[in-house]
Amino acid sequence: MKTLAAPLVALILVSACSRREPPAPPAAAPAPQAPVAAKPAPAPAVEDRYAPLMRAVFGSQYRSDKGDALAPMPDAHDPGTRSPLVLSGVQSTQLPSGETVLVVAGEQVDENGNADSSHGSPGYLSLYLLRQENDRWVVLRKHENIAELGSHGKVGRLSWVELGPGKTGLVAEHGMTGQGTTVMQLALFDPAAGKVADLTGDGIVYHYDDEGGCTEMRERCASSDAKWRLDAASPAQPYFDLVLDIESTERVAKPGAMEAGPKDGADDIERDERTTRTTARYGFVDSKYRLREGSNPMDSE
């Protein structure tokens, strides 16, 4: 028994030492997580030099990402009602009184709140007077939708002038082209007036050109262009005279030219050309500028 027990014990020990624990199963992969949508970054603000003034006037209606405001404005064609416009600051200056005037141009708007102007759509002109108090802009007076100017929703080229002694004025050179004819007009405004309106009434024409529609079928074609100025040497009553130095060209078909048609591949028929120079002086009388001396041939075109 002793001789058998020793080998048996040794065999049991060897078997015990040779057993291995089975390897642990691999760890389960983590369950996939649903993707988290990234928050859209806020649209960057558009660089707008008039932003502080626009915010003072329109508050939360000013859109920093677009550099404009979307706000209801008085409807000149339907008194008592307001219609939304897209509004942009286009000019500003400080008046002799110390007040700052902000010029705002408005355009018609589509259903998405974007500017939507066609060829025949005017720009809508508004003026706001502000004063800075303790690093804050305060709106003093509003002159909204005082004029409809230009086309494509644009109010034209704006500039500041001296209307009279100590009187800062705004000039708008605006117009449109249609069927080959271009007409440009002057509009003048006194931002410090109690009621701001176009001092020219319905505008004074300083450029006329129908050459774009001048074909062999037209007997007469004309163009006129004026250099305008405010005459500081004139008595200010209360504004300086407006003077236009005008050069006009008229091209009239020669006798029989319309029947003969263009010659030798020319684009037009033979015409006689005549150039004239005139001066028109407008004075401010009875609330608007009226022709005082000379003539403006563009008034009859």
TrEMBL record:
<feature type="compositionally biased region" description="Pro residues">
    <location>
        <begin position="23"/>
        <end position="33"/>
    </location>
</feature>
<protein>
    <recommendedName>
        <fullName>Lipoprotein</fullName>
    </recommendedName>
</protein>
<feature type="region of interest" description="Disordered">
    <location>
        <begin position="254"/>
        <end position="278"/>
    </location>
</feature>
<feature type="region of interest" description="Disordered">
    <location>
        <begin position="20"/>
        <end position="40"/>
    </location>
</feature>
<feature type="region of interest" description="Disordered">
    <location>
        <begin position="65"/>
        <end position="84"/>
    </location>
</feature>
<feature type="compositionally biased region" description="Basic and acidic residues">
    <location>
        <begin position="261"/>
        <end position="276"/>
    </location>
</feature>
